[in-house]
Amino acid sequence: ALAAIDRQDRIRSANTAFLRMFPQVSIGSSIHDRIDSPERTKLLEAATASHVETATYRGRWDLKTDGAARTFDVYSAPLEIEGEYGQILTLVDVTEATKAESALRRSETLAAVGAAAAQLAHEIKNPLGSIRLGVEMLREHAVSEDATKTIGLVERGIDHLNKLVVDVTQFSRRRKLDASEVDLHELIDSSIELVADRVRDKQTPIEKDYAAQDIRGTWDSEQLREVFVNLLANAIDAGEPKSRVEISTELIDANSGPRTLEVIAAAGNPRARISITDHGVGMDAKTQARLFE
Ligand SMILES: Nc1ncnc2c1ncn2[C@@H]1O[C@H](COP(=O)(O)OP(=O)(O)OP(=O)(O)O)[C@@H](O)[C@H]1O
Ligand SMILES: [Mg+2]
């Protein structure tokens, strides 16, 4: 969006993009009056507050246009109007660029955190091994029931730390796909078995609604099972005791239906859709925004 503004802060000319953004503005009007929102008036006043000798960056502004928030970089450059000082104002829509930047920054932060965590896990793993050996030796020499009990506590602590360390190391290493021919329904059944403890504790009815035909594909069964187990565990956790959890499967045509998730798939290849539905507390917007971290 572009506008030429004279010494008396009047708008002398503007392109359609500018007039669309500032619908209350008309050619010849002052930037101080009749601008529809205070934030827009503030932007225009700040961007023209001082004389500039060369093209100058006036900062980044968030403006609501058509109900959506968009981000603009604002520049002003000197422009002579009827022999007097004036300036030309340029607003550049950088909404997409800032989104891409912050996504990149977030993934870089996550990668850095992952690397630090992996390093820490590695440093913990080695001494943990010798602590475990030492405690095992102590167990042989324990003389009282109290001592044996304490050693049991220590060992449980070590097991817990060890599990954490293994989790972190696996998490920060992107695992290779180990794909093989898999039957989806068998895979889901075996995932349900792995959350049997939770199901029993919460008395969760698991309702299966599988597609009538077998669904087979070339998948990494280990990693998929992990996905299902995590989703199931979260679904069970989210609900009250005895609150239902439903699992359904469906074979879908790659070219039909809503494409909420962009999946790289050869055109025409069928896909499987697996839905795990709970009736629990739901997720607030903040949790949803971090869904794929
Ligand atoms: N089905 C769900 N309903 C409501 N909130 C959920 C659901 N699934 C996940 N969440 C929210 O997202 C958070 C993160 O889930 P995530 O599985 O990563 O960790 P967790 O369940 O808290 O711990 P962990 O799985 O490591 O034992 C949960 O703590 C919960 O607040
Ligand atoms: Mg979880």
Here the CATH topology of the largest domain equals: Heat Shock Protein 90
Overall pLDDT confidence: 88
Radius of gyration: 31 Å
Instruction: Give the H and E element order.
Output: EEHHEEEHHEHHEEHEEH
| Shape designation | elongated
Largest sheet: 5 strands, antiparallel
The figure for the number of domains is 3
| Helix segment tally | 8
CATH level 1 name of the largest domain? Alpha Beta
Distance between the termini: 36 Å
Physical arrangement of strands within the biggest beta sheet: 2-1-5-4-3
Secondary structural class: alpha+beta
Classify the helix fraction into a percent range.
40-55%
CATH superfamily of the largest domain: Histidine kinase-like ATPase, C-terminal domain
Contiguous low-pLDDT stretches (5 residues minimum) are: 260-265
Tally of DSSP β-strands = 10
The molecules bound to the chains, other than polymers, are: adenosine-5'-triphosphate, magnesium ion
Strand content bin: 15-25%
Architecture of the largest domain, CATH level 2?
2-Layer Sandwich
How are the SSEs ordered, and which strands pair?
Layout: E1 2-5, E2 11-14, H1 16-21, H2 38-48, E3 56-65, E4 68-81, E5 84-93, H3 95-141, H4 145-172, E6 180-183, H5 184-194, H6 196-202, E7 206-209, E8 216-219, H7 221-238, E9 245-252, E10 271-278, H8 285-289
Parallel strand pairs: 7-9
Antiparallel strand pairs: 1-2, 1-5, 3-4, 4-5, 6-8, 9-10
Helix pairs in contact: 3-4, 5-7
The structure holds adenosine-5'-triphosphate and magnesium ion.
